[in-house]
Amino acid sequence: MSLGLTLARRGLRVAVVGRADRPHAASAAAGAMNGCFGEVTPHLLRSEHGRLKLAMDFRATALWDGWEEGLLQESDEVALRTAKGTVVILNTVGVPEIDTEGFKAIRTALDEYKEPYEDIDPADVPWIHPAPTHRPLQAMFIPGEHAVDAPALLRALSAALVRNGGTIVDDLVAEVLLDGDRATGVRLTSGEVLSAGHVVLATGAATTKLLSCLPEELRNKIPAVVAGRGVALMVRTAAGTMPPSVIRTPNRAFACGLHVVPRQDGVIYLGATNEVESQVGTTAAIGELNLLLSGASQMHDDLVNGWVERILVGNRPVPLDGFPLLGRAGVDGLWLMTGTYRDGLHQSPLLAAEMAARILGEQADAELDVFTPVRPPIEAMTRDECLEMAVRHTLGSGYEHEWRLPDDWPPMIEKHFRSAFGRSLEQVDPEFVPPPEMFIFADDYIHAALRTYYEAHRGASGR
Q1: Which end of the chain is more exposed for a tag (fewer CB within 10 A), N or C?
Q2: CA geometry: angle at 42 spanning 40 and 43, to 5°?
Q3: Residues with pLDDT less than 70, the chain
Q4: What are phi and psi of 294, to 5 degrees?
């Protein structure tokens, strides 16, 4: 929608195809934090490509004030932001290797970018009133990180696109049409054909099946996109109160940490989980709901008296190597703008401008060329780091679920995880290093897709 609007504002004829109800799409279910520094992890800062993603988030943050102003002028919405700033808390629920180190990494990134923040007494954080066993140890306030009302944003984008001459087609694409080495349009599920000089797949976790139009040899060189299924709750608080800001923990267990985002009229967004799966998920597992409901006491012990108004299920687009797919998809006129994992909504103003420049043949940021879709696997860690991260975050999820075990059991469980994950990593590939999320879950499709992708690049990479 953001790219369509950007191109329509430039006077191009644009059609955006997609179901109006956006079933199980990531943005429709998002807490929509303008998260830049709040998402920082130690691993992100150690990786060249991770630092580039952070730089993209930082650039996107600077665009949001102007982006919001333009959308409000071109739609019927009166406001898009729902939170003023972000409070990051460090409490006793997580583990030091993840939560404490994550909290330190956020502070390191803030200092490096000279971004304002303030250390605050957790007891002074407005609204928060956790259970006594979940008291925060530390807290910091980041005044420049807000949150967006995702439904309002999507309504504003739709209205602005139409008012700028764009067309919205309430249907799904069944097939991308090629004529030789050039994309010429799409065939919809209704059978209608739309012709176009350029086709952009900004299709999230549903992207890979639409790439069947490409020759197999070319298609195998693009990392497949799988689904990071997330579950969140819309909760009406008992007293009708909401925090003025986002309140969140550092990222945990391959997810974006526990977070509360104020929406409106005494309703908060409580999120979120993350399960990497081969297929788009449509329902919430009981264990995921239990995690969110038990996690609520980390934020406010009175949430148990609130009401769950809606269960949200969305699917983040996760490429096999964990990094975005931005640019030409190997043939003329076919582009990918997806694979952004948890960054897509926040980065949308930046990515729309960058992709529009590429489509129009204008100067674009060459640093982002590393995320071109047809690429060798991006490896952001060593095999030892990958295995360690898989073990630590899996164990961390146990503590987040507040498991109660004899003291001598966690070391035994850790030993088992290290052995099992090590075998799984070796079975996926003895040389290439995938993100830990891709092999800790026993998903045969993802493991097979990884092997296919690695084999397509083995000779070119010298392995």
Answers
A1: C
A2: 100
A3: 461-462
A4: -70, -35
